[in-house]
Amino acid sequence: MKNFDYARPQDVQSAAAALGKAKGSRPKGGGTDLITLMKSGVLTPPLVVDLASIPGLSGVSRLETGHFRVGATTTIAEVAEHPELARVARVLTDAAATTATPLVRNRGTVGGNLCQRPRCWYFRNLDYVCSKKGGQTCYAAEGENKYHAIFENVTCNIVHPSNLAPALWALDATIHVAGPTGEKSIPVADFWVRPEEDISTENVLEAGEVITGVSFAPEGASTGSAYHEVREKQSYDWALVNAAVRLDFEGEVVKEARIVVSAVAPIPLRLEACEKILKGQKFSDALAEAAGKAASGGATPLRDNAYKVHLIEKCVKNTILDAARRAKVRSGEPR
Amino acid sequence: MHPPDSEKPGLSRRGFLKGTGLSVAAVGLVKSATAAQEAPAAEVPTLSAAQTHEISFELNGQTTQAKVRTGHTLLETLRDQLDLTGTKLVCDQGSCGACTVHLDGKPVNSCLVFATDVAGRQITTIEGLAKNGNLHPVQAGFLHEDASQCGFCTPGMIMSCKALLDRNPSPTRDECKEAISGNICRCGTYFNIFRAVDHAATLMKGGR
Q: Model's pTM, two decimal places?
């Protein structure tokens, strides 16, 4: 790995200022993704700015509004094991507990998880100057594309790697960002950038901007949420497909639904077509099945990944069923 | 939770600057950079890419110094500089767990930790488990259940198993599987490892 200037600011403003000064500089949370990218030579930042050393940027707190805030450098393990978050944002703690390995979860952070780069093996291999690295070709389009996108795979076939992203979107969370021009709050829905808009990045963060935390409303008394992912290997693997679901009930009727999937497109996708099938309807297993079926609408699988079309349907259906079951348990109704 | 670094002895902002041998030239660089700002930000302690930095940390209970570059991982520093070769280098990307050590009591991949990040913190490696010639119960459990074949994953496995038993004295089989899910055994000794953890749990509760 090439050496780099390593800044350890004590506050977010100085971090943003330092990042804004040196072109190609990178913020670091736990470093679990950044270090592998630097070892492979895909990233060679002249300056790395350590956010983990900034006091007050980690931890879970309750805001005056009643919302919960999770600091950017809170580790994935802390989220996964947080008893209160498990009560008010189960979709998030499930997604965190499913992320990587216990070893990586002890280092990896919430902000870093949202900003990690795609796992596409062409992107990660320095020998392939793919379109995401400034070249002309997406090698996955005609190459080995078993793990690539089945939706929105026109320009670039990566899948978004974050487990927490769909979970936070299911909670309609807000991402808090600090940068050279001050602080701003971005709804998770507006955080992502499609390859067609800017192929060099996956999110809206500009140079010098860093995530300071995420916040969301706790689940209500008749809400249930769940996160599921399908993997080749249960012990430790990247998701082939995943789904995050939040259902708000009014009695037996689905009042509001949030269905977000990932690992299937360059950015996480909210499936409004599936939500529409559930909304305003009396919940049933058949309804979940129908919503699951709708999850594959518009899929454009590649040579090796048509299996994902089937998986996403089942994954969405099962996650909906799980969320509904939890809502029932919470509101005290027998199953 | 770790306390903020600024509260730690040996890693106060001043201590960090001093302890890491930050050169006057580097400070000058930072100053000139911030001077260009309209509202100058606080001076940011920065380790230069061009220099070697001395770090001090607690390694297996002993205060230890190492001279590292910013691009050095904790794993490289342990093996190549401090001669602690029990911690293994295999995938070098956090996928296999052979390099597992404890950082402030928590198991992490030492290949994914910058050496400079452990200044002022506690590291435990496989070499730090046996005390006065007596094996740690997890090591004894591995011996008792013959939980090694080629042995290359063993140090990392033991560190993950120890971390599990430190926080959960009576883990279920599923909890054990989850705890070592970041450690790969290419020989497939997993069932012996599960039994070794059971045995170690018994030993740690005073059983035999």
A: 0.91
